[in-house]
Amino acid sequence: MNVKVRGSGIISVINEQDESGFCPFSNKGGTATSRPLPGGRFFYFLMRLKEVYTVRERLEALKAEALEELEQIGQTAQVQELRVKYLGKKGLLTEILRGMGKLSAEERPVIGQLGNEVRSAIESKLEEKKEAAERAEIEAKLASESIDVTLPGRMVHVGNRHPLTLVTEQIEDIFLGMGFTVAEGPEIETDYYNFETLNLPKNHPARDMQDSFYITEEILLRTHTSPVQVRTMEKMKGKVPVKVICPGRVYRRDNDDATHSHVFNQVEGLMVGENVRMSDLKGVLLNFARQMFGEGTEIRLRPSFFPFTEPSAEVDVSCSMCGGKGCRVCKHTGWLEILGSGMVHPRVLEMAGYDPEKYTGFAFGMGIDRIAMLKYGIDDIRHFYTNDVRFLKQFNRV
Questions:
Q1: How many angstroms separate the Cα of 28 from the Cα of each of 254, 288, 309?
Q2: Are 299 and 334 in contact (CB under 8 A)?
Q3: Would you say 310 is a known binding-site residue?
Q4: What does the alpha-carbon distance between residue 117 and residue 129 come to, in Å, rounded to a whole number?
Q5: How far apart are CA 50 and CA 371, in angstroms?
Q6: pLDDT for 359-382, tens place per residue?
Q7: Cα 169 to Cα 381: distance, rounded to the nearest angstrom
Q8: Digit-coded pLDDT (tens) for 23-55
Q9: Which domains does the chain carry?
C-alpha cells in the first residue's frame, strides 16, 4: 500500500495486497485501486493502518518469542508453564486477540486467521517439547534404576528366633513325639482355676509360695500354667487318656535378679488314664532329658511337696558341664534341678470330673527360661528380656 500526498492537499491511497493477501483499505480484501482521500480523513486512516499492522507485528513477535523460549526448555513442568503463559485464559496470545474488537469486519477474519496460525505453531512446538521432555525423563529414571547384574550380591540381614522360642519349640517337639498335645489358656485367670481347683483353697498356707499379681479379689495374672490342665480335663468330661502340655507366660511377684524374674515362661505336662504310675512319669522325663541335654544325661527324683500332687518329687539332671563329677555350675553336686513333678492329687482329679478310684495321673512343670539357661550356659535370666542384639544374634545358627 502506498500513501501519496499531492500538492492540492488531496491524498491518494493505492491499495496493494501484502504477503498475506490483506489490504486494510480494500472493500474486497486487496484489489489494486487508487482513490483520493480528503485531507481531513488522513489521520483517521493512518491510525487504522497503524492498529492493524501493530496487531500483526505483535502476533509475529509473540510467535518468535514463544518458539525461541520453547527451544531452551527440557522438562515437562516447564512446558506446562509456557503453555499457560502463552495460550492460557490470561495468556499473552489471548491478550493480543482481545484487541480484535477494534478492527473492522473485513480486518477481523484475516487477523483471526493469523492468530490461529500462531496458536497452532505454538501448540505444535509445545507438544513436541512435551514428548521430548517425557521421553528424556523416562530414560533418566530408567538409567537411575538400572541394575548391573554383574555386581556381586549383597548379604541380606535377617533376624532369628529368640532363644526362649527355640527351646519352647524343642520341648513341644519332644512331647509331641511321645503322643502329647499342646494346649493354651488365658494369662488373666480366676482365683478358682489358678488355686482352688489345684487343691489350694483360700487361706491355704501354700499360696504364700506364689506371691501373685491380683487385678481384683477373684482375678489375677496366672502364677503357673496348671489351670490349663484343669480346663483341658473339664473339656474331656471324664474321657481318657489325657496327654497334654501347656506352655505359656506366667507372673509372680519376685525380685528380679540373675535367676528370678517377675515374668517368665513355663511348660506343664499332664497325663491321666488307667494304671498311670510313677514309673511312667520317670520314663517320660528321662526320655525328655536325654533328647534335650544329650543321650548320656541321667535324672534323679528327690521327694518334695506340691499341693496338687501326691507323692511329689523334684527332678534333677546330671550336670552336662562336668558329666556329673561336680563343678562350679552344679555347686559340686553333679546335679542340676530342672523341674517339679508328682502324681496328680485325688482331689484335683475329682474336681475336674475324674473318679480318683479309677483313674490316676502324673503332672510336671518346668521353667523354659531355666531349661534355656542350662542348655546354652547362660548365667543371667535377664539376658532374655533386655533385647540386647549382641546376645540374641548368637542363636541365629542354633
A1: 111, 114, 123
A2: no
A3: yes
A4: 18
A5: 104
A6: 999 999 999 999 999 898 898 999
A7: 19
A8: 444 444 444 444 444 444 544 444 554 555 577
A9: 55-101+110-140 (no CATH), 163-393 (3.30.930.10)
